[in-house]
Amino acid sequence: MNDSVLQELYQVVLGRKSTPREGSYTCYLFDKGLDKILKKVGEECSETIIAAKNGRQEETVGEISDLIYHLMVMMAQQNIPLEAVLEELSRRSQKIGNLKQMKSVDRET
Ligand SMILES: N=c1c2ncn([C@@H]3O[C@H](COP(=O)(O)OP(=O)(O)OP(=O)(O)O)[C@@H](O)[C@H]3O)c2ncn1[C@@H]1O[C@H](COP(=O)(O)O)[C@@H](O)[C@H]1O
């Protein structure tokens, strides 16, 4: 497993957006639209939290995978390239020792 699994999955999702395919769950989500996609992202996020809280590692891995997939559908719907996220993560990785910065952000909320 490497980064290319994420890239391949995103290519499949983009392909479903440009070329509808019968029986495709991804096409079903695109047909339903943004509100449905966001609802699924929210559901999968909550299910991930619950699985982790319950200490169920295998279940948590499954929920994280569902969440990543649904986030990718959301990104495709919003025309956000995967590279934008990978580049942002890469940019952030240039900086370590972020604790103080995060604390000041927390105080503002
Ligand atoms: N990674 C996924 C993936 N993860 C989860 N799911 C689907 O997400 C749905 C979530 O299940 P739920 O019980 O929460 O939802 P549901 O009751 O089935 O339906 P709704 O609540 O959305 O109405 C299931 O139908 C899963 O099959 C996925 N569907 C597709 N993919 C990827 O997308 C590719 C293309 O799939 P199709 O678009 O179906 O061809 C696949 O090869 C996979 O790589």
From TrEMBL:
InterPro entries: HisE (IPR008179), PRib-ATP_PPHydrolase-like (IPR021130). Keywords: Amino-acid biosynthesis, ATP-binding, Cytoplasm, Histidine biosynthesis, Hydrolase, Nucleotide-binding. It is found in: Cytoplasm. The keyword Transferase does not apply. Its EC number is 3.6.1.31. It catalyses: 1-(5-phospho-beta-D-ribosyl)-ATP + H2O = 1-(5-phospho-beta-D-ribosyl)-5'-AMP + diphosphate + H(+). SUPFAM superfamilies: all-alpha NTP pyrophosphatases (SSF101386). One of its GO terms (cellular component) is cytoplasm. GO terms for biological process: L-histidine biosynthetic process. It comes from the Bacteria. One of its GO terms (molecular function) is phosphoribosyl-ATP diphosphatase activity. Pathway: Amino-acid biosynthesis; L-histidine biosynthesis; L-histidine from 5-phospho-alpha-D-ribose 1-diphosphate: step 2/9. NCBIfam families: histidine_hisI (TIGR03188), PRK00400.1-3 (NF001611). Belongs to the PRA-PH family. PANTHER family: HISTIDINE BIOSYNTHESIS BIFUNCTIONAL PROTEIN (PTHR42945), HISTIDINE BIOSYNTHESIS BIFUNCTIONAL PROTEIN HISIE (PTHR42945:SF9). This is Phosphoribosyl-ATP pyrophosphatase.
